[in-house]
Design goal:
Length: 200
Amino acid sequence: MYSADHLWKFITRGAMIMCSDNQEGIDIVIPICHTRKALSRHSVTAILVQVKNSERYQLKINKSLFDGMDPISLGLFPDKVDTKPVIRIVFALAALDAGVDFPIERKRKSHHDNMFTAFDVWCAGLEKETFKHIGDDLSSYRLLLERSLRPHDAFELKEDTKMDEETKRLGGSLRRRMAPLTTDDNAHHAIHLRKSKSTA
């Protein structure tokens, strides 16, 4: 959906794309377009964003994250659509030292031997030095970051002794659907398996 063939349509709705978990290379796609050209697949490009909440990523730029946001490999510019400059941003939210940095090189070579221009920005830390507009909301954002680092607790609910067995069973199933494939036991992945014709 973030191919230029479709991306321009999101602009008509004032929308951006939040990618699914473990989407290759990117987490957020913000469509942008040339304001002096008709809105179409030929005038659209994007801001590509990766968001990291791990302390593994600090103020020092990790080039591999920008490499993963290769617009050619990701299919942003399909056949018959000219390659355009992109903006690539990494948010290393759990970095201990805050700041904004920019890689020196601007020209990038994709895995398909095509050249593209990228303007890269590395934003480290959840601090006012990085996000000057955050103001008095900083403590709220820190709470959200802390919550994102906690393990999933959808299954740590206290059982109500007044519940009948069927209600307990349904409650467990609903909780597992909140975090499918979290563990490898049957209860977490069986709901996603197709039944064979012999057992259907």
